[in-house]
Design goal:
This protein has 227 residues and is an alpha+beta fold. It has three helices and nine strands, in the order ββββαααβββββ. α1 (55-72) packs antiparallel against α2 (79-98). The chain is rod-shaped and about 95 Å long.
């Protein structure tokens, strides 16, 4: 006589807590809600999926709504703040349903399939969208930084694309270390509130001049080329 099959776990009827899942009718369940957010420029949606949830339906709902928020929740200015707050609000509910025992068999409907854990789903890459956006902003600031408005007397110069200084416009100038082999010139003096490059003649060491301006300032750079 063969030994009884032990591969199937015995339902834990003692885990019944008198709370039933609103979606499959199974117990044990917990009275938690899950929320989602969608941000589309000036239009926003605040989503709510009410409980109670059993373990499987709760995890399935949490993962689905988080993935949807990860892709659709960032496309508005206020949503950049609201969406991560919404995801954080869901974490206690997720912990609560994850701690429940498995749904006791015999419920009126089949519990939802929780599917793969959140971070093992390709769609969860949407969680990286705000990180990528922040890095893009930082990179843009760094690339645009070092403009002529920040240059001062004594700074050494190169061009953004390392082209010859004599062919460059003022907007192409960037600061570089004076010990850098790429340095092509040094600022003898910076003259603010003028576009008059002829004033560089007052400085014998200067053999070239550049003028530039932004929304509030205009100035001349009198420079000495190294070659």
């Amino acid at each position: 006589m063969s030994a009884p099959d032990q591969s199937h776990s015995v339902p834990d009827f003692a885990s019944a807590n008198g709370v039933y899942c609103a979606y499959c009718g199974a117990t044990p369940a917990a009275p938690v809600d899950f929320r989602g957010h969608r941000g589309m420029l000036i239009v926003m949606q605040f989503l709510r999926q009410p409980g109670p949830f059993c373990r499987d339906c709760g995890l399935a709902t949490y993962r689905r709504m988080t993935v949807e928020s990860a892709w659709l929740g960032w496309w508005g200015f206020l949503s950049l703040v609201i969406n991560p707050i919404t995801m954080l609000i869901n974490l206690p509910g997720r912990s609560t349903v994850a701690a429940l025992a498995p749904p006791i068999p015999g419920s009126p409907r089949q519990p939802m399939d929780p599917g793969k854990p959140l971070l093992r789903r390709p769609a969860a890459l949407g969680l990286l969208l705000p990180v990528a956006a922040a890095l893009s902003i930082v990179a843009g600031v760094l690339v645009s930084g070092g403009g002529t408005d920040e240059l001062a007397t004594g700074d050494c110069l190169d061009t953004r694309d390392h082209s010859a200084l004599r062919m460059a416009k003022a907007s192409q100038l960037v600061e570089t270390g004076c010990s850098d082999p790429a340095a092509q010139a040094k600022i003898v003096v910076r003259l603010d509130n003028t576009h008059d490059t002829s004033r560089c003649r007052e400085y014998p060491d200067a053999d070239d001049a550049f003028t530039d301006s932004d929304d509030t300032k205009y100035f001349v750079l009198c420079v000495r080329r190294f070659s």
